[in-house]
Amino acid sequence: MKFISLEMENFRQYYSKQKIDFSIKPKKNFTIISGANGCGKTNLLGAINWCFYNDEGVENGKYKETKKLEVLNEKVLDDMKIGEKKNVSIKIFLGEGQTTDFVIERKKTFKKTDTGRLALVDEDFKILKKTSGGFEEEDNKQILIKQILPKEIRSFFFFDGEKLDSFFKIGSGTNIKKAIFDVSQIELINNTISHTQRVSREIEKGVDDVNPKIKEKSEEKSSFMEKKEDLEKQKKEHEASIENTEKDILQIDNFLRKFGRSDVSSLQKERDRLKEEAKSIQDREGEIKSKITEVVIDNYPSSILSGVIENTINEVEKLDKQKKLPPEIDPKYLEKILKLNKCICGRCVDKKSKEFKLIDSLIDRNSFGENASLLIEGRGILNRDSERKEDDIKKLDELNKEFLRLEERYKQVGNRNKEINLALEGLDEEEISQKETKRNMLHMALIKEESYLAVCKNDIKNLDEEIGDLAKELDDLWKKSNESNEVVSQIRLLNESSDVLNKILNEIVEEVRNTIQIKTEEYFFSMIWNKESFEKVRIDDNYNLSVINSYGNECLHSLSSGQRQVLALSFMAALKEVSGFDAPVVIDTPLGRISGEPRDNIAKNLPEYLKGTQVTLLVTDTEYTTSFKEKIKERTELEYQIKLNKKTGTSSIEKYER
Amino acid sequence: MVKNEINKLILEKLNKAKCENKVKELIKNLLEFERDSLNEDVMRYTDQYKNFVEHYARRVDKK
After folding, report:
1. Looking at the complex, does the CB of residue B19 fall below 8 Å from at least one CB of chain A?
2. CA A382 to chain centroid
3. B17, closest residue in chain A (CA to CA)
4. Other residues' Cβ atoms within 10 Å of the Cβ of residue A645
5. A228/A457 Cα distance (integer angstroms)
6. What are phi and psi of A553, to 5 degrees?
């Protein structure tokens, strides 16, 4: 199925009627629609979604502010008179070949009320199908939409390239699992299984006068199953909550990235830390300065008199050597020893002994007079001073070194602070810090939800085991019971059916996973430029997608943004292919945020993408470079430009002639 | 996947599955029943389902 053309009237910023014909030639099936940021590319994607499903299918906030507003163009609304009615409509012409087979049309009529507000007065949705006698309105519209492209898998056909990356970033296993389940369309089996189980339970419950043992076990099983259903519900809630929280976090991250920095908060924290460090450096420097002053003051006199002191010490040393110095003992003690003929240590000091003579001579030296004691005391002081001076010099040296170190660090802190200030300059710091606080809260909530989910899953697993055991027991009991064959047969039949269906379900999902893995790898290698660096693409049992490099290591997280975009585009193409639906693909901003060389690399290989599928690319001006144009030329038939009238805020689509 | 393909796949797997023929038959009928209810978005409710299954099981048992 291809888009033949699209007609729209008054949708969002598109004023009055606009028309796009799509490229429908088998080998030239790319349609390029380019426009600057904010001119309405995403609204075009929204228009297609709106026409098919009555919602714009835009997630994650691009319409956050406008979502509540009606889709009617604002200029039309402004120009409307009270009581006047205006239409918003999208018509999509689709065809298997090059002519229209279906027309899907959604129209809403609005009226301006007396209060100037907008009221929806009529809405219409119809599908016209080509028959031999012309176009006829189709009765079963929802079924037809499901046949063309079911709502739950539309996001593999109409998507935003900028957001593909997040597919692999946030809880990738869950996202990929959901995608695979969606694409497998296994709701049919799931419904059948849950219904079989429910009916089996009902029948069990309905049997009266049953063997009490069976009754007991059956009630037990029933209560376990109810518990399990409850847990399944909780699990779904947790999963949804995790998904939403992850989206919110991503939105905040995108907001912060808009300023070119996702680490604003850590910068702010670092700056606070630096502030404290600078203060403590200053405090310590103050302490050092006063210590240095103290030491210098202490040493000032002795430094000034250092020459004199040195001389004095030398002189005293000389005298000492000549034994002309008085002993450092009080003469009174010496005299006492001589008088008692006994030393304080108890030795006898005979008058004729050497010791007596020595002590006597010492007393004699005391006759240096009054100067003697001064000399003794002074010698001690001078020696002590000189030793202290050396210590102080060492101390001063250390203090100086520390001071220099601190000065150096202070300089570094100052420079880093300047850098941070420069980086944060112009940002609304309050808003950013609010966002950061919110992000932290969300992060905490996420961890909590994840732990709840894990508990939930574990409980379900345990219950499954219990239920399985009980089912076996019950089966045995039923066999032995005298119950009518009919009931036993019904229950056993239903239980066995649900087992078989479960097996089939697992096999199908496994097959789909495997096929998607193979297809993703095929696309990845057809588009990636450095093929030799990679070995394979894998989707493991837990639905985590990984890329194995040529050394055999997992390298998803070290892929460049360009390589990741290729992987994401490949995965989407694989899902699209496995889905079996032959619907056209529309990609908003296919190259995402990639620029420079990787962009050229993707552009070069993009013509290889989805060969045989009609692709519409909504590209930004910066994305649609000359080299991109050149490379995509061979597959492009028609090109359009979206022109935004800045005065009126309305956009129009113009065909671009090469 | 497109419904037809999925149905084909299920039936293929069902034929390979090791189970009694009457189980296979029931599943085939259930899927058919379920598909109708999906398409028309009605008859999703247990009572109708139960009646069908009871009726079916009775029939199978008599065979």
Report:
1. yes
2. 72
3. A500
4. 13
5. 10
6. -100, 150
The radius of gyration of chain B's CA atoms, rounded to the nearest angstrom, is: 13
**Phi and psi at residue B18, to the nearest 5°:** -90, 100
CB pairs under 8 A between A and B: 101
From A260, A404, A291, select the one nearest A412 (Cα to Cα): A404
The beta-carbon neighbor of B1 closest among A183, A499, A503 is A183
Concatenating the DSSP letter of every residue in A586-630 gives EEESTTTT--HHHHHHHHHHGGGTTTTS-EEEEEETTTS-HHHHH
Alpha helices (H) along A117-211:
141-148, 161-169, 172-184, 187-206
A569-586 pLDDT per residue, tens: 898 888 888 888 889 999
Closest CA to B11 of A391, A524, A534, A504: A504
A120 CA: distance to closest CA in chain B (Å): 27
- Radius of gyration of chain A from its Cα atoms, rounded to whole angstroms: 45
How far apart CA A380 and CA A423 sit, in angstroms, is: 64
β-strand pairing of A585-588 with A158-160: parallel
SS3 category, A559: coil
Report pLDDT for A327: 65
Sign of the dihedral defined by the CA atoms of residues A293, A298, A301, A304, in that order: negative
For residue B27, list chain A residues with Cβ-Cβ distance below 8 A: 192, 497, 500-501
Tens digit of each residue's pLDDT (9 = 90 or more) over A46-67 = 999 999 999 887 553 444 434 4
The pTM (predicted TM-score) of the whole model is 0.64
Q: How far off is chain A from B58, nearest CA to CA, in Å?
A: 6
Rounded to a whole number, what is the largest CA-CA distance in chain B?
37
Pairing of strands A30-35, A615-620: parallel
pLDDT in tens, A5-24: 999 999 988 998 999 999 99
